[in-house]
Every structure is written in structure tokens, then in C-alpha cells.
Amino acid sequence: SKTVSTILVTGGSSGIGKCIAIECYRQGAFITLVARNEEKLLQAKKEVEKCAINDKQVVLCISVDVSSDYSQVESVIKQAQEKLGPVDMLVNCAGTSMSGKFEEVEVDRFKKLMEVNYLGSVYPTRAVITTMKERRMGRIMFVSSQAGQIGLFGYTAYSPSKFALRGLAESLQMEIKPYNIYVTVAYPPDTDTPGLAEENKTKPLETRLISETSGVCQPEQVAKIVVRDAVQGNFNSSVGPDGYMLSALTCGMSPVTSITEGLQQIVTMGLFRTIALFYLGSFDSIVRRCMIQREQSKAADKRE
Amino acid sequence: SKTVSTILVTGGSSGIGKCIAIECYRQGAFITLVARNEEKLLQAKKEVEKCAINDKQVVLCISVDVSSDYSQVESVIKQAQEKLGPVDMLVNCAGTSMSGKFEEVEVDRFKKLMEVNYLGSVYPTRAVITTMKERRMGRIMFVSSQAGQIGLFGYTAYSPSKFALRGLAESLQMEIKPYNIYVTVAYPPDTDTPGLAEENKTKPLETRLISETSGVCQPEQVAKIVVRDAIVTMGLFRTIALFYLGSFDSIVRRCMIQREQSKAADKRE
């Protein structure tokens, strides 16, 4: 039986995925990085290798699109398991974000985002689940987003893909809990990554203003919290006090892994819902005012 | 200005969609039924027409797959709006369900379910939204499911598609609220429809046992409740909205300054 943890990280070549890989490597794990771009993978591999704590550790890189074709993903993960042994923890971090008004988003983006963020998590999970069930052990992580807990202005193409991950995680956890496999869903806030920089290019004003109520955090910080929660087997992983409140508020029918967590959710629900209603009110205000503003300036332009 | 409601129901040829169409028709609406199968559409049209309350009412049938190609959906809804006038309420009821263990579900079902249940709601919504925003009125309904509120054993392919509808509805509502368009998300439980019968064929034992804690209800009952919820909540929301209209703050000032600066910058170029 194995003494070393084998971790497979999709989307491991940049952003939160890369930081999760580094965090696990620092704890002595063997890492497989999965992403599409080979150059970025090799770059990330070098960064991860710097954090080795012993000389037996290995970083394997595999280039594949996890959202396009299941049989490809299956064969690639099979190879990885042959080289580094069965996967102890799968980190589904492959994903992309975008923001824009519903009728301005290119129509094919709805499908594309859902494929990358959702199917790109379904396929790797499917590829490792049988082995994990046989071994009666494992961890599966889904990196959702705060946009997977609340739908905000500008995220009509993104939020659904992140909400979908939660539905998948809840159903899956119920199926595999007797097999001692734990699912963790991470809900990071806006995180300072290349992905966010890309998203900011088309971000509507309203989204920007609403996002300002919550800050931007660092991927290293997210990675630490998420890895700790996954190892402990916590279903919900949130970052910061805002994240804590949002997770407690939106816990719905999610499972809990500790009685304390359950008690906290029960006790804080009423208060958090009250606060949430105030936030929602202010978001609606922002949206309405931007709309009025835009129409006044359109009318002014017409008069000229 | 129109006095009659024009309702477009996707998935209107059977199950909950058909019952919603009947419920609206009983209240004098003009209905467009959208589904793939022409025979089922004509069958449903006959059933809906029986419930007419006056002889001006019309049921239009359109056969299209709402999940495959946006431009098809767009053109078909354009036709419908030319015949019956702009859509007052869009009911996104096109969808299918299935249950099975995660590793036993055929791999392509994850994609298929998401396409039908999610994209099949995105595309019609996209096709009506611009007109609704121009008219400053409208209702958009998404038929999710209790499986879109809780992920249960056996629904790893279905729950995500229904959770996704909620994410879409929440984001969309925030964008269109100032335009007086309201979004309703329906969360029906197991409902006695052909869709459920199909789902039961592959339902795992665990799912069956868990579902027994909640009953099966009738689509007519679901339709009544869902239609009422879509129409009735307007007054309260309008009152709250009026409070927002009456106040200024620094965000508004910042928006104004930003726009004037960018207008001035544009002029200089």
C-alpha cells in the first residue's frame, strides 16, 4: 500500500490549479499536471519542482483538453496512474471565466463555458472514480466559484457552469460516501490569476461595481485553504469571512462533515439571510442606476 | 398596446409544459407551442384548444430543437412573434430527465442533458430578451426541479443541468430587473409525466427509496402554481423598485463622471 499521495490537477498549468499543485508538492506529494498547452505545462512543472521536500518526488505533465472527448481523458489518466500509481486526489481546476451582458455574450460562449467548466470536470472524475471506489479511498475536488453560489449581473454564461459543479458534487458525494471518498467543492472569490485578467477585459461596469464589495485574493491563499479542506474531507471550502458567510447562507441541502459546521449553519442562517437581502438590494440599486445613466446619456447623444 | 397575453412554451407538447399552456389558455392567452415532434405538437394543440374561453384565441405550433442551433431558434421565435405579436411570457419547459449511477450513465448523456435542459433554455430566452427589454415588460420562466435544489443519489447527470438553470435565472434577473422583466424558477418535485415514466426505467434502487420520502404530484397542479407565481409577484417588486429610483449616491456620480470623461475623450479623437 502506498505511503505517498498522488495528486492529479487539471488546469494545473496556471492560476489556482498551479498553486494547488505547489501546495501539495510542498507536502511531499507526486503531482500530475493536466492542461492543454505544453509550454505552459513545462513552465509550471519547473515552478512546482522548486518546492520539492525530498528527491523522490515527481511531476508528470500531460497535455489534453479535458472537455472535448472522454476516451482521450480516460486513456491519459490511465497512463498517469500507470506511471505514478492510482490517484489519491483529483483536483478539477480546469476552467475559464468570462463576464458580459446576457444579450452581448457571443451565443456559442454559453456552450463553450459549460463544456470547459462542467464537462471538463465530469470526464476526469469519471476516469478516476472506479479505481477510487475499488480502493475505498480518495478525494475529489471541484473548483467552483462564488459565482456558483450567487448569480450576479454579467455572469449569465459563467454562473450556470459553476452552479452545475455544485449539483454534480452533491449528487456524487451521496453516491460515493460509503466508499470513503470525499468530495470538496471550493468557492473562491475573484482571485488574482491570468483567468481573472482575461475576464476583466469584457467585464461590464455593473459587474465591476458589484464585485468591489468583495476583494481580490491571491491564488496561493486559495490553494492553502482548499487543500486543507480537501484533505480533511470538508464538502464546502470557502475563502475569507465573505466566503464563510456566503457558504453558510447558500449551504442549502449540502452535506456537512462536522457537527460544528452544521451547528454554525443552523445558528447563522437567519442573520446571514438578512444581510444577504441588503446586499441584493444594493446590487439591484447599482444595476438600476447604471441603466438610467446609460439611457440618459443615450438620449443626450441623440439630441446632439 | 396589447390586451391579450402571448405565451410561448417550449416543451409544450407534453408533461408540465402542456399543462402550463392549458392553464394559460384557460386565462385567455394566445399560445405558441414549441417542441421537436410535430405529431405530439398537433395532439397537444387539440387538447389546449378545448380549453378556449373565447373564439379569438389561437394556438400556434412550431417544430424545432431548441437546444441544437441558436439561429434556428431565433428565426422560429421571430416567426412566432410576427404571427401572434411579441411574447409576453416565455416558459422554458423543454427538458428531459434521467437517473442512474455516476459511472453507469453513458458518458455522452452528461453533455446531452446539459444541452437540452440548459442550452435549450438559454437560446429561447436569448431570442425574446431584446424585445422584452424594449417593451419594458415580460416574464421568463425556467422549469428547474427539486433536483436543482438538492443533488441526490442517481442524479449526477441531471442535477447539474437543473442547478445551472438557477445560476442563469439569478444572473439574468439581476440584469433585467430594471426593465420590469421578472424571472421565475419553478422547482417541481417528481411529477406524473411521460418524462418521469422514462426516468423510472433506469432509476437505481437508492434513488427510488430516497424519492419515496416525497410524493409524485400531478402536472396540472404544478402548472397552476407555477403560472400563478409568474404573474402575481409583480406588485411587491415594483414597490421596492420605486424606493431605489428615489435615491442618489456616489456610484451614480462616479458613473456620470466616467461617462462624461469618456465622451470628452471620444470627442477629442
UniProtKB/TrEMBL annotation, chain A:
Pathway involvement of the protein, from the record: Sphingolipid metabolism; Lipid metabolism; sphingolipid metabolism
Taxonomic lineage from the root: Eukaryota, Metazoa, Chordata, Craniata, Vertebrata
Gene3D superfamilies reported in the protein's UniProt record: NAD(P)-binding Rossmann-like Domain (3.40.50.720)
Top-level EC class as recorded in UniProt: oxidoreductase
Pfam families per UniProt: adh_short (PF00106)
Signal peptide: none
Main location: endoplasmic reticulum
Organism: Salarias fasciatus
Protein name: 3-dehydrosphinganine reductase
Record keywords: Endoplasmic reticulum, Lipid metabolism, NADP, Oxidoreductase, Sphingolipid metabolism
TrEMBL record, chain B:
Record bears the keyword Endoplasmic reticulum: yes
Source organism, top-level taxon: Eukaryota
Any GO BP: sphingolipid biosynthetic process
Reaction equations catalysed: sphinganine + NADP(+) = 3-oxosphinganine + NADPH + H(+)
Compartments, record wording: Endoplasmic reticulum
Molecular function GO labels: 3-dehydrosphinganine reductase activity
Primary location: endoplasmic reticulum
Pfam short name (any one): adh_short
GO CC term, one of those recorded: endoplasmic reticulum membrane
The enzyme's E.C. designation: 1.1.1.102
Enzyme superclass (EC): oxidoreductase
Alphabetical UniProt keywords: Endoplasmic reticulum, Lipid metabolism, NADP, Oxidoreductase, Sphingolipid metabolism
Signal sequence region: none
CDD domains the UniProt entry points to: KDSR-like_SDR_c
Parts of the chain that traverse the membrane: none
Keyword Secreted: no
Pathway the protein contributes to: Lipid metabolism; sphingolipid metabolism; Sphingolipid metabolism
PANTHER family: 3-KETODIHYDROSPHINGOSINE REDUCTASE
Function: Catalyzes the reduction of 3'-oxosphinganine (3-ketodihydrosphingosine/KDS) to sphinganine (dihydrosphingosine/DHS), the second step of de novo sphingolipid biosynthesis.
Protein name per Swiss-Prot or TrEMBL: 3-dehydrosphinganine reductase
Source organism per UniProt: Salarias fasciatus (Jewelled blenny)
Name of the coding gene: kdsr
